[in-house]
Amino acid sequence: MTKLAILEYPDPRLRTKAAPIEAVDATVRRLADDLLETMYGSNGVGLAATQVDVHRRLLVLDVSEERNRPIVLINPEIVATEEPGPCEEGCLSLPGIYASVTRAQKIRVRAQDRTGATFEMDAVGLTAVCIQHEMDHLDGRLFVDYLSELKRQVIRRRLAKERRQRTVGSEARSAAPVT
Ligand code: ZN
Question: Which residues, chain by chain, have CB under 5 Å from ion ligand 1?
Fold first, then answer.
């Protein structure tokens, strides 16, 4: 497994719409493994292929405390949503930035697993929010798109400043989940 580089906002490649995966083969399974490795290595709870500059419809997540319940969703589709509500979100492509976004707190999602089999799962709370956040990535959308342009400008300035100041190997991490 390989830890991959994560694209950071406002990199235009994050705006690419990912293409469906036609066949779940060894390349796709390796991508899933690399995404999991990258997610765990970055202390994230979710990661979409888009974030590592691979524009195919695959995302991974693990919202468990123990970090031992990986979920791989290939070609995910949301088939039902319920209970819209606010949730504080972060993103590995926007290090250190958090904002409240309103999303369904209960969803039903259909996807393929790493064998290519189609399955459906019900997700609530952080799992539901994380899946919606990662699916947005596959469509080239970021959580800051739900904020005002003024707030996005402030965030872009802050990220640019932090990138200038960032020293190699130093990582500032918040306790809040980042996806
Ligand atoms: Zn994200």
Answer: 91, 179
Distance 123 CA to ligand 1 centre (A): 18
Listed residue (89, 150, 114, 123) closest to 25, CA to CA: 114
Residue 134 is a catalytic residue: yes
> Which pTM does this prediction carry?
0.92
62, 49 Cβ separation under 8 angstroms: no
49, 18 contact by CB (below 8 A): yes
Measured in Å, residue 51 CA sits from the centre of ligand 1 at 7
| pLDDT at residue 23 is higher than 70 | yes
Q: Which of 134, 149, 162, 171 is flagged as catalytic?
A: 134
Question: Could you tell me the CATH superfamily of domain 12-147?
Answer: Peptide deformylase (3.90.45.10)
Domain residue ranges of the chain, discontinuous segments joined by +: 12-147, 148-179
- In this predicted structure, the answer to whether residue 91 has a pLDDT above a threshold of 70 is yes
Distances in Å between the alpha carbon of 81 and those of 2, 45, 60, 108, 144? Answer: 34, 21, 20, 7, 21
- Which DSSP string corresponds to 112-171? E-TTS-EEEEEEEHHHHHHHHHHHHHHTT--GGGGS-HHHHHHHHHHHHHHHHHPPTT--
Strand-strand pairing, 46-48 and 58-61: antiparallel
